[in-house]
Amino acid sequence: MILLDGKRVAAEIRGELREKVALMKKKPALAVVLVGNDPASEVYVKGKIKACEEVGIISYSYRLPENSTQKEVEKLVASLVKKKAIHGILVQLPLPKGLDADKILKLIPPEKDVDGFSSANFGKIALGEDGVSACTPLGVMELMKRYGIEVKGKRAVVVGRSKIVGRPLAMLLLNRDATVTICHSKTENLKEECLRADILIAAIGKERFITADMVKEGAVVVDVGINRSENGKLYGDVDFENVKEKAAYITPVPGGVGPMTIAMLMKNTVDAAEKNE
Ligand code: NDP
Description:
Elements: E1 2-3, H1 6-22, E2 29-35, H2 39-55, E3 58-64, H3 70-82, E4 88-91, H4 101-105, H5 119-126, H6 135-146, E5 155-159, H7 166-175, E6 179-183, H8 190-195, E7 199-202, E8 220-223, E9 227-228, E10 234-235, H9 240-243, E11 249-250, H10 257-276
Parallel strand pairs: 1-11, 2-3, 2-4, 5-6, 5-7, 7-8, 8-11
Antiparallel strand pairs: 9-10
The structure holds NADPH dihydro-nicotinamide-adenine-dinucleotide phosphate (NDP).
Residues 136, 159-162, 164-166, 183-187, 190, 203-206, 224-227, 257-258, 261 line the site of NADPH dihydro-nicotinamide-adenine-dinucleotide phosphate.
């Protein structure tokens, strides 16, 4: 079994980006908007800002209180859209209850949409065109690429069909010539579907849901899930301890897809700044 070390690969990518940014006349700039005090979001935002510092991206943090109104958040995002010096805008999700995230995200134009969540960018990816891809799916593809994992012709099964992970990841796999199956909560015979996978991706949000009996011997297993257990520990969507005995490659949680997501956010921001030069 080979461990897909996202932590190591993400550091390598940040190093490459740092070299690239050092040569750029105008430094890339990312605006990070955090509304409220969700502890997990605070941790993610900190990680993103730290990665910006490492790469040489200028980051601007905007914090709004938990009880902010829809109008207040929209006003902030609209003002960032107008700022020429800002190349990318990131609104940390989830937003506090009562706020309409879709409406806020729609204010971000595709060229500043470094999270790749806009319909325009998703549409391009779905059509196999050059668009900004969502960071987590892009991170999964990059991780496999750097380990020399062949995707072409392989049977890939993606469990989860969310807008930010499952759907775009299925499109990226299809663009790389995999034969793709998308599973979700209404899928019948999930175990049989998973057992057919050469590449099995879990993006479900349920702790240790994918068990060893659902995995084909020699499969590539990528675990997107991040679940905080009652014991305070982080677990993925895959039962790592048992599945690792069957998998040829497997990502750990933490240290797998998570760091790759942030590295791809850095890449998307640098790309956005380059296009703007
Ligand atoms: P969502 O809750 O938006 O989507 C979960 C998906 O899993 C849905 O499509 C759902 O199906 C499916 N699902 C739920 N239960 C089952 C089941 N019993 N059998 C089959 N499918 C099921 O989650 P996200 O995609 O946003 O996130 C998934 C996980 O990845 C979470 O743990 C999240 O924390 C993590 N994550 C990690 C990131 C990283 O950087 N590593 C980034 C983003 C997310 P249906 O559509 O039918 O409801």
